[in-house]
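Our working data are protein records whose layout never changes between entries. The record below serves as our worked example for the rest of this section:
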Amino acid sequence: MGYPLYSPPYQLDIGLLSDIGRSRTINQDDAGVIQLADNSGVLAYVADGMGGYNGGEIASQTAGEILQRMSASKLTEQNCAKSLLAGFTEANSAIYQLAEHSLELKSMGTTLVALVILEEYAFFANTGDSRLYLFRDHKTLQLSEDHSIVAELVRSGLITPAQAKQHPHKHVITHAVGVKPDVYVDISNAPVLIKPNDHFLLCSDGLYELVEDNEMLAIVSQHPAQIACEQLIQLANSRGGYDNISALIVHVIAK
């Protein structure tokens, strides 16, 4: 006789959409969500690839495939952060090795942001500037920390967030998965206790550079997850869609 499956005290409404945008010829974003072993929760991620030819696409897909393999492991509150770090590290090594053995893939890499909903808790990790937001009690909180030149300037008080949006180096990131032998990863210091009606949004910069935080909050709060993803990407495209655009929403609903 096996162990009973865990039955969380909530349901998850999940939406996911990745769009090529209006200017690019290929979508180098990759996004996915997969159920964890024992029905204990889900793992969600967004990766924004970079590199010539199809290198960015390969980098983001490689990262996603490696993270998805985590779902087969037994994740617990005690080992989840360590497992996320191990997943990012393995993805970094795999992408770096691919790039080292191919001139066409040289210097490819990817941003990566990941969220694990495990029983009543949320864990997260990121490298680069793809983001994780939490919309709770009509407020917006960016859980991830951007690894970019302009983000460092904002954190140091040298420029304002408004100035960062217009900065000539706003697309220059300081950390990415796969570009160096070692990778820097921000891991959640402590699990986030989730609450009913929490909305988590993972997205690439193609979304948040064209859609304001208050607009995200309004759309995510007022619509089912899949429709909200569609509306967010439609709004970004209506404003130029200069990059690939990915949105993944996890809405926590009390049973």
Notes: The mean pLDDT is 92. The CA atoms of residues 32 and 45 lie 6 Å apart.
